Amino acid sequence: MFVGAIAVLIWLADRLPLPGLDSGIWLFVAFGELSAAAERFGELSHVVRSGLANGGDVVFLLLRLSIPVVVLVFLTLAVRRRAGAEGGEASVLWSKILLWPMFLALTIGSYVNGALLSFNVTSLVRGLPNITVLMVLLIPIVVFCYGQAYREHGRRPAWPLLVVVAAVEALLLLLSDLVSYATPSSYSVGVTALAPIVVVVACVVIAASGRDGVTVPAR
Cα 142–28–150 angle (5° rounding)? Predict the structure, then answer.
């Protein structure tokens, strides 16, 4: 049954292409993260009504969320402008650079972290979980690989923009975890969860407005 459900999801994703992102799989990822975030906010609302938290806690949490959201929106706009200037299949490559680096860095980092824990290596950098350190190191590598893949399509990678993407994603992740370490909150939403939500919504809105001229490649 599990395999069948996965097959159905893949089939649906293939038939729900997102503007500039091609595969609709990111829509399912974004919905999943949005559902989890809504559940956390529901719990927070219950805690506030119960008097166990005050309005200041809510404002601080919203501030923690708004900063990465704003940064991700501006990053999406910059990348989509580049995509709109080139169009076609290249536009899809440019849009995916916003999502895959964090996703692949998290996946690879989880396996490496598991190996490190088997050798009792619990902290590569004091005050930060191993997975954060590994992701900060892996994100630039994944972005560089995407730049090389872009070259294979016969186009010249815009390395300055790719460097900005890698630096911003790694910095957002690092700062988010440092804030979480200093002020722990079980209701916060991490950057890796925010990224697919923000990027998917932003890409759809931008494409619907027709401002970037990016179209989904014909299948």
Answer: 30
